[in-house]
Specification:
This protein is an alpha+beta fold. It has 32 helices and 29 strands. The strands form 8 sheets. Strands 19, 20, 23, 24, 25, 26, 27, 28 and 29 form a 9-stranded antiparallel beta sheet that branches. It has a 6-stranded mixed beta sheet with strand order 10-11-14-13-12-17, with helices on both faces.
Length: about 900
């Protein structure tokens, strides 16, 4: 039998040898990498080597007996568990808490109840002292277990720990130490002085402290074998062992880890650290910024994704029916530069952030301008991971304001110019490929600063998408044609007019040239700055309108502020809603004119608001209808897929919401973000789904630098410290293999004979050759968590989505498969939710068959089973 490493190409005849290889090469674990199980038929993966060893001991013990593990099976839903009576009764308790009738599981007992406490009392009184043989035969069964290894083969495996060339093992140990120190410095932010202490102590332990112990071991071993050696020879032997031990060699005075400088040189050589470069802005005043060269970083990224076959470089014609990525947008389709195969698309992000407490004495003193980039040629799910977002520039915000973006972005734009004209040679492909920037993602202030528009939103021309006056936002809609979209030729004239005026007076909101449009041949300001739904909607329109609506509804005495906060606090949030649960509404929300909260909290509050307080508000309440149209807008804008029908519906619902808002709040003026929102339908046609180009995940990247400052407390050259730490972190993640698309930490292998007949028939029909399946309660696929009890969208009927409740999650032939119960669906317009009813029909679904990848939570409200969408589901597939 051959054992093959799932991370690299290592192959072995022995399982223990593969285990040793895992320990040396892939045993570090961490969030960037999951260590897969050694067995090819097991889908589990683990973050640490110890977790892998525990799993192997529990589920893959090398046995020679023919008796296999015992398995408990639930007679209600086919959920099967091995070797865990406690887990089995906990599962039955979940049925009882739903008031489902459960029969006693012990022989010769016909007791049945649907009350949890009654079942527990019966079990305690009647079956407190029981054995495994007392369970009913249909509940507890034993499977045959085939031996995996012969006994003599198992006995020989221990000798393989000593196999391998000494030089190779010594180098592996050095690399392991290097990876450990890299992890300590980059992931846990351990100071170099602390690492120096660790190295000194390990060196002392491996030499001086271990000498007497080794001498006793050597003497005892020689005595056991009747060998008599001169004590001087024994001391010399022990001394040589201590000095030549791989740990001593790695950590000794001549080793590569004794100083921070030596460690950094070792990391550069073995882990491909791309070092930041310091660029001088003002030598006299000592003003500089850090730039991480994008071309060597891009080369590493491209080599990685080409090897993993996740690079999407094929140019395809626009799909007439769907907008799924920015490649389907008209801006990308009309750019002739991207008509060639394997063009690199870069997405830049520019923003300012505080590395210190924004309310403390250091407020704005260490405010930093950051420029990140992400490769647009990889799937959206991969682009959202923080490890796929790379650093380009760090500069003090005050220096950026003083010297301008043109000066700060200069080294980056020079490299991208080279990428446009000459390309970058990729050894994996054996040729050079070209690329350029396709979009610059930023909030409105950041986008206007870089693009050269006015940075005040109180002036006459505040929109970067059209040349309309702000005074007309209240009276005219974008769909009426009153606001003409900006064009390239028109923008060029506006730049010339602004620069040629005596005092550089802005012309139609344009005050200077965009440095990217000036330097890059295939990028233009009018097609390169998409809107940001995070700041426009979730942190802009939504909290403002929620505050106005709550004030109005409270004054109408539908509920009080205390009742509202109690409802928000006591709502039974599930899944990701529990993580993003909204905060309580502050008492001064009307004075502040906003409910506050971050984007995730506001999104969750708006989504679940119908379930939280919907029954307290009359159906025809105008303010409530205004809020529900806003919820519809957010659902549509957040959709990962659009069609012409959904875009036209978004256009109409935005117009409806505008009319309703002005009707119920005539004294309040529309803010500029309301006008930006009216451009969204056309912008989706130009940029593709806007949720794929928002700033949410980029802003999450700031947390890394804030954490570094909080742990190190070093402000001497803060930009250099942050850039160095980031590049070490990137090198650490690059040294690991790809994160598996399917991550499972705990599964149970179940024979088909143990499944209920309906499930068994479905599995046999779809997978005829399968004799066993892997059952799990939770799995993670491409960053999305699935759990038993969630709802999945698996089709549509009469324009309504069809939902199914997950009864069991299985991995069959390395495919994520769901055993589900279909639901009848009705739409409740007042609550903007779907009411569900069990049909009793079960089916088997693979993940690829889902109409929407995102699972939904099931809530119970006044005896009704309801769910609300996370985003609009495009059903015209």
């Amino acid at each position: 039998m051959r054992w093959l490493c799932k991370i690299c190409s290592f192959e072995s005849k022995k399982r223990l040898e593969l285990l040793k290889h895992y320990r040396l090469k892939h045993g570090n674990g961490g969030r960037s990498q999951s260590i897969p199980c050694l067995h090819t038929d097991c889908p589990c993966s683990f973050k640490t080597f110890n977790a892998l060893q525990t799993h192997l001991c529990r589920h893959h013990v090398e046995m020679v007996t023919q008796s296999g593990p015992l398995s408990f099976t639930c007679l209600l839903c086919c959920s099967v568990f091995f070797d865990s009576e406690k887990q089995y009764f906990e599962h039955l308790g979940r049925h009882l808490r739903k008031f489902e009738a459960v029969a006693c599981v012990f022989k010769n007992c016909n007791f049945s109840t649907n009350i949890y406490s009654t079942f527990a009392t019966h079990r305690h009184r009647k079956h407190q002292s029981h054995r495994l043989e007392d369970f009913k035969t249909e509940v507890l069964k034993r499977q045959p277990y085939e031996p995996m290894f012969a006994q003599d083969e198992t006995c020989e495996e221990s000798s393989e720990l000593w196999d391998g060339e000494p030089q190779e093992l010594s180098q592996d140990i050095k690399e392991k130490f290097g990876l450990l120190f890299l992890k300590l410095e980059s992931k846990f932010n351990v100071p170099n002085k602390c690492i120096d202490e660790i190295v000194d102590e390990l060196q002392f332990i491996s030499t001086s402290a271990s000498g007497p112990l080794l001498r006793d071991v050597v003497v005892s071993t020689l005595n056991n074998h009747n060998c008599d050696l001169d004590p001087a020879i024994i001391l010399d032997l022990v001394k040589n062992i201590c000095e030549t031990h791989p740990i001593s060699a790695a950590l000794g005075t001549s080793g590569p880890f004794t100083t921070s400088f030596k460690r950094r040189e070792f990391m550069k050589k073995h882990f491909s650290v791309v070092e930041p470069e310091e660029h001088i802005l003002d030598k006299k005043e000592g003003k500089t910024f850090q730039y991480v060269p994008i071309l060597p970083s891009l080369l590493q990224v491209l080599s990685k994704f080409f090897q993993e076959n996740t690079f999407e470089g094929e140019n395809k014609a626009k799909n007439d029916f769907k907008y799924q990525t920015f490649r389907d947008g008209s801006h990308y389709q009309k750019n002739k530069f991207f008509s060639v195969e394997n063009r690199v698309t870069l997405i830049l992000y520019i923003d300012d952030f505080e590395v210190c407490n924004p309310l403390g004495t250091s407020r704005k003193k260490h405010k930093v301008t950051a420029v990140y980039w992400v490769l647009g040629n990889i799937p959206v799910q991969l682009r959202s991971t923080l490890t796929s977002i790379y650093l380009a520039i760090l500069c003090k915000a005050e220096d950026t304001k003083q010297f301008g973006f043109q000066r700060v972005l200069e080294p980056l734009l020079i490299d991208i110019q080279s990428l446009e004209k000459d390309g970058l040679f990729v050894p994996v492909l054996g040729k050079a490929i070209k690329g350029t920037v396709v979009s610059v993602v930023a909030d409105n202030l950041g986008a206007h600063s870089v693009a050269g528009f006015v940075e005040s939103f109180a002036g006459s021309y505040v929109c970067r998408f059209c040349v309309g006056e702000r005074s007309k936002f209240q009276s005219d809609e974008v769909r009426s044609g009153s606001f003409h979209q900006r064009t390239k030729d028109q923008h060029t004239l506006h730049v010339q007019a602004a620069l040629s005026s005596p005092h550089h007076t802005p012309c139609y909101g344009v005050k200077k040239q965009c440095p990217l449009s000036e330097k890059l041949e295939h990028f233009h300001v009018t097609s390169g700055y998409p809107p940001d739904v995070l700041h426009d909607l979730l942190e802009g329109i939504v909290p403002v309108e929620l505050a106005l609506a709550f004030d109005n509804l409270i004054k109408k005495k539908y509920f009080s502020l205390i009742e509202l906060n109690d409802a928000i606090s006591n709502f039974p949030y599930k899944g990701s809603d529990k993580t993003n649960r909204p905060h309580l509404i502050p008492a001064n929300f009307l004075t502040r004119k906003t409910v506050g909260g971050n984007a995730h909290e506001n999104w969750c509050l708006l989504r679940l608001l119908p379930l939280i307080i919907g029954l307290k508000v009359p159906e025809q309440e105008p303010v409530w209808q205004m809020l529900m149209t806003l919820k519809d807008i957010v659902d549509l804008v957040m959709s990962p897929v659009h069609t012409e029908e959904s875009i036209c519906y978004l256009d109409s619902i935005i117009s409806e919401h505008r009319s309703r808002f002005l009707d119920v709040f005539p004294q309040h003026k529309l803010i500029p973000k309301h006008h930006f929102l009216e451009h969204y339908p056309q912008l989706i046609r130009e940029f593709g789904p806007l949720a794929a180009l928002w700033t949410m995940r980029f802003e999450a990247k700031h947390s890394f630098f804030k954490r570094v400052v909080r742990h190190t407390g070093c402000f001497r050259n803060i930009l250099l410290s942050l850039a160095n730490k980031h590049q070490l972190m990137v090198a650490y993640h690059q040294s690991h293999g790809a994160k598996p698309s399917l991550a499972v930490t705990k599964t149970t292998e179940v024979s088909l004979d143990m499944l209920k007949d309906d499930l068994k028939d479905l599995v046999k029909c779809r997978f005829p050759a399968v004799t066993a399946v892997h059952v799990a309660n939770n799995v993670c696929s491409l960053g999305t968590n699935y759990a038993v009890g969630m709802l999945l969208c698996c089709g549509s009927t009469a324009g309504l989505p069809d939902f199914s409740e997950v009864l069991q999650i299985m991995v069959i032939c390395n495919k994520l498969t769901f055993f589900v119960r279909q639901q009848n669906t009705w739409y409740n317009e007042h609550l903007r939710s779907y009411e569900l009813e069990n049909t009793g029909i079960v089916q088997l679904l693979e993940q690829r068959e889902l109409k929407d990848f995102y699972p939904l939570a099931l809530y119970t409200l006044a005896g009704r089973r309801l769910t609300t969408l996370k985003h609009h589901i495009c059903l015209s597939f």
